[in-house]
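Recap from last week: sequence in, structure out.
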Amino acid sequence: MRILVVGSGGREHALCWTLAASPLTDALYCAPGNAGIAEEATCVAIAADDSAGLLKFCTDERIDFVVVGPEGPLVAGLVDKLEAVGIAAFGPTAAAAMLEGSKGFMKDLCAKYGIPTAAYRRFTDAEAAKKYIREQGAPIVVKADGLAAGKGVTVARSVEEALAAVDTAMVDGAFGAAGQELVVEEFMTGEEASCFALVDGKDFVMLASAQDHKAVGDGDTGPNTGGMGAYSPAPVVTPLIEKVVAARIIGPTVEAMAEEGRPYKGVLYAGLMITADGPKLVEYNVRFGDPECQVLMMRLKSDLLPALIAARDGVLKHFDLRWYDEPALTVVMAARGYPGEYKKGTEIRGLDKAAEVPDVKVFHAGTKRDGDRVLAVGGRVLNVTATGKTVAEAQARAYEAVDRIDWPDGFCRRDIGWRAIGR
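Predicted structure tokens:
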């Protein structure tokens, strides 16, 4: 098969690395890709949101199957456009991608179908949102309704912080149109984890669990980012918890979306809070997580490509995927200043030395090649990923590789995996 992966991040590098190993793959392309992806696939200079350019490329190059990585093109309907011209694609339609495209839509669906989640209200008026926040008190959570690249959520410890979050979104317009509507919801106590499922419109297959680290600083301090590291499996997701998630959250969502005339196909990523009352849904993402995809792909024993095709074709019912028991852990190296202002174009050296550490793979997220040099061009730049017999061993290997990378303009958290190791 001739395969195109859409996207340019660490998630897409992990997908390309995995798909390149499939005996079904004849040719692998990535649009637009990055310096690391270029080692696995032929990179083509077409932006992930250039649907016309992508359609033309797929037609010209006789692409058999497209795997859409990021949420933006999914919410914008790239899968619909590809399928309309007879090109098979993995990912939800625009109607189904609303599960991530609108937090309000997701919350309303949960309320209608009894899917456990935090109590909430939706607002399009800043003063009404502030009045509700004052009535509820803190801690409280303020979320931009639309896509905000992982930065539209404020877990406010005080009423003042929550009121400021309303102003940031609605008055200052920090998230553009995505912040013109807000979801304000109760603060849930517990431990966060992520569960993933492949869905074919009616049936689903649970994938491995993971836990990511959203805050920029050690000890989960500082602002939220797109994710500073992750590991899989998440010890908090016991076999019993996984069964409950499948029965009370994933299954009912798949049924609800079919009932609503928005059948869901693709990967469904459930961000969860494991509370004293059991798992509750924090949010849905409609794509593989980033950096969670990186640790999942390191642990996947089966060929990914037939599973993605089965999800698209609606034949997952008797499908099974196998996983290595060994945990995997990834450390995100980001540009100094991220998630705020950061410098682009700084040189990264020592990647070959990092790759020599056993059981380590360095996935590229925000890089480009300039002759023989690799330059940082994004906020999150590298995902240094390792496996080991234990989370502690995987962590030690990942940081050994991190320490071999010579990039003065980069930084990372030094405590990825701390919860699992603490156990």
